[in-house]
Automatic annotation (TrEMBL):
Protein name: Lipoprotein
Top-rank lineage group of the source organism: Bacteria
GO cellular component, one term: plasma membrane
Main location: membrane
Keywords (A to Z) from UniProt: Cell inner membrane, Cell membrane, Lipoprotein, Membrane, Signal, Transport
Species assigned in the record: Streptomyces fumanus
UniProt similarity note: Belongs to the bacterial solute-binding protein SsuA/TauA family.
GO MF term (any one): ATPase-coupled transmembrane transporter activity
Localization per Swiss-Prot or TrEMBL: Cell inner membrane; Periplasm
Length: 385
């Protein structure tokens, strides 16, 4: 934390607020359409863990909305803790009763959006940038955000031999997961606030942005091909375990240290045709988040077990423990921060300013929350009319 304190002091940073778009926001959203889409097979679509809690529909229970199955997507990341724990502990399956919960594990947002748009996925956990892009590219026709899931869990980890303060980042090579993804946009925005110029498409400029899959970023760091990375958990903690140090926790850039890192999205068609199934999944999500908060150690173990089932390898304690501490599960979608993140993408030149009105439909979630004795959450004026 010493590096973080020193770096913020030298940079004169303050919690981020939305910056108005400028004429520099010139690139159309269509640019993002050409981002590489991983094939569904490559991203693990349809993969299912061998676990009793995920073995199938509850025998003798009625089907929810008459459906044989509901297809749920998520990433194998700690930032998707609700989905990991909810799947592992059987919360989704119990809520769906006689309808089977089927799971698909993705590596990238574009492939999950493609699955949602094609009808091969019904509901999923995903980061804010893919949700914004997917909504805007379809002119608001294909998806809705129906819940929040997690805040935090993103850090700038650097090689302490090369970078001792924020000003040392200039001229270095910093990895982000993918062009236009949530962390890429956040880093570009932060770099601009430091006064550095970076071409968003090429990644070249006062800082070189290297788009690197989270799976290979730790090896890139060890080899010296990158000097640091702005990445989500558990990649950030993997870099620390490899000798890196946290220069910046993104949470420190936001009011109240809260910002959306994971949403729950659903196909509009599925929401319209099967509202009871969506409500059941959201009920399981709320129940899972309550259980995580009440049983943090057991929840951490369950998430790691599911990661091992999905990826073939559990996280060591040196990575899992700090990664878990940096995540806050939440039902609140933190809608105002999503709008701010969209503004950052516009400012970076990656996105034409989108009309996000209607991206949220929180009525099913608020119904679940009221029944659980919890307060309703707000859509920051971006809800369906």
């Amino acid at each position: 934390m010493g590096l973080l304190t020193e770096g913020l002091a030298r940079a004169g940073r303050h919690p981020r607020t939305p910056r108005p778009a400028t004429s520099a926001a010139r690139r159309a959203l269509a640019v993002l359409a050409v981002l590489p889409l991983l094939a569904l097979a490559a991203c693990g679509y349809g993969s299912q863990a061998k676990d009793d809690a995920r073995a199938g529909a509850v025998a003798g229970a009625p089907k929810t909305d008459g459906l044989d199955s509901v297809r749920i997507g998520y990433f194998g990341n700690i930032t998707h803790a609700t989905a990991l724990v909810g799947a592992r502990k059987g919360f989704f399956q119990r809520a769906l009763g006689g309808t089977e919960a089927k799971y698909a594990v993705f590596n990238a947002g574009p492939s999950e959006i493609e699955a949602l748009n094609s009808g091969s996925l019904d509901i999923g956990w995903i980061g804010p940038s893919p949700a914004i892009n997917g909504y805007a590219r379809s002119d608001g026709r294909n998806l809705r955000i129906v819940s929040g899931s997690a805040s935090g869990g993103v850090k700038l980890v650097v090689n302490p031999e090369k970078i001792r303060s924020v000003r040392d980042v200039e001229g270095k090579r910093i990895a982000t997961p993918q062009l236009g993804n949530t962390q890429d946009v956040a880093f570009l925005d932060w770099a601009a606030e430091q006064g550095w110029h970076v071409d968003a498409q090429s990644g070249k400029g006062d800082v070189t942005v290297v788009r690197s899959d989270n799976k290979v970023t730790p090896d890139a760091y060890r080899s010296g091909s990158v000097d640091g990375a702005w990445v989500p958990e558990p990649t950030a903690s993997k870099l620390v375990a490899a000798g890196g140090e946290v220069l910046l926790d993104e949470a420190d850039l936001w009011p109240d240290k809260k910002f959306v890192i994971t949403n729950v999205i659903v196909s509009q068609k599925f929401l319209d045709e099967h509202p009871e199934a969506v409500e059941a999944v959201l009920r399981a999500s709320v129940t899972t988040n309550r259980w995580i908060k009440a049983h943090p150690d057991a929840a951490k173990a369950a998430a790691n077990e599911q990661l091992a089932a999905d990826t073939g390898k559990a996280l060591p304690a040196a990575v899992l423990d700090p990664a878990w501490r940096s995540i806050q599960v939440t039902d609140d979608p933190l809608a105002a921060t999503l709008e701010t993140q969209a503004g950052h993408a516009v400012e970076a030149g990656l996105l034409d300013r989108p009309d996000l009105r209607g991206i949220y439909d929180l009525a099913p979630l608020n119904k679940v929350l009221r029944s659980a004795g919890e307060p309703a959450v707000d859509d920051a004026g971006l809800g369906v009319p």
